[in-house]
Amino acid sequence: MYPALRQQFAEFVQLSEEEFDYVASFFRPKKFKKHSIIIQSGELVNHEYFVIKGLLKTATIDEKGKEHILQFAMENWWVSDYQALMSRERSQFNIECLENVELLYLSLSDKNKLCAEMHKMEHFFRLKATSGLINTQKRVLVLIKNDTQSRYNLLFDQYPLLFQRVPKALVASYLGVSRETLSRFSAK
Amino acid sequence: MYPALRQQFAEFVQLSEEEFDYVASFFRPKKFKKHSIIIQSGELVNHEYFVIKGLLKTATIDEKGKEHILQFAMENWWVSDYQALMSRERSQFNIECLENVELLYLSLSDKNKLCAEMHKMEHFFRLKATSGLINTQKRVLVLIKNDTQSRYNLLFDQYPLLFQRVPKALVASYLGVSRETLSRFSAK
DNA sequence: CAAAATCCGTGACATTTATCACATATTCTA
DNA sequence: TAGAATATGTGATAAATGTCACGGATTTTG
User: Which of A148, B20, B45, B64 is the most core-located residue (most Cβ within 10 A)?
Assistant: First the structure.
């Protein structure tokens, strides 16, 4: 069961069959249709999600009605509103399926339980959080260091497939530029 | 010894006197003069630092010679190049003291040892990494969502003291705008 | 399959920001 | 304390980007 999840853990920790089965028993599978909202802005958040298949966006809408995308999540990524999850606040994001999606979800209390019971899982999630931090720091750096053209190129080089799966307007909103400006750059 | 460190751990875990003393024994104090470079771009990174006193910047220089600041670190913050530390790569940053600084430093191997031996410490560092991730995500969001004026206001509201401790040119470089533009905004 | 919705490029123009230049004020340091 | 270095504000101009508008292509959906 859940070979993708098994592989995910294997990156940082070694689990026996029994250990993995125990851990996996806390995850539940769920399918969503394109356009479904996994997490709704203003609601409380109780789960973290592991993407088996499909593509999602984490987005927020500003006072002018413009959408800004914090991140995309594709296969083997984890996604949630961690701010809301950790601080028990209401979510400021919508997390929405951009394709039909298959997820495994884990409740916050089960995650904490797993981390408390199994040192290995605490270790896994520490490293996962650290690598998430590093990647987000990279994103900050790209935003303050690079102009639009070079932000576009970097993203395109790193995730060429993304541009086939996602409308350009969303890529623009992820890069922090207008749809029109991106369109003019992508021609070049 | 190290009451600030003690308090730092207490935010997430309860340690007995003996436990704390044991953990603290892996930390070493060190003082640096203003302008000292703690981590030099191009070097390997082996330590993580906890700021007891003073202020530092984590910065990188682009091909045009312009400096960009990933973060400031003040009292009770942790600082290092986590990318370099975790992946055993050479640092892309300079981490420099903007004031006279007192630090406690911990080697990567000792951190891993502590995490392996003491589940509580692994827990602490998991939560610390998670909260670092959340804060960095907030920073990304501010960068793509807000214009310069409002980025300036948000930073000023959150860290008013920073503006007294740091030259405006550095604040500009942290916000991702030119010194001149920031100067015109700060007047308003 | 046909209507509706979305997507995408592009022109024209307004707005924002960067860059260069310079003057003054302030802070550091020998 | 005097000279040097740094920090700050501001004008003029160029460059980059946003906004509004439009039309045609593509995709979605009942």
Answer: B45
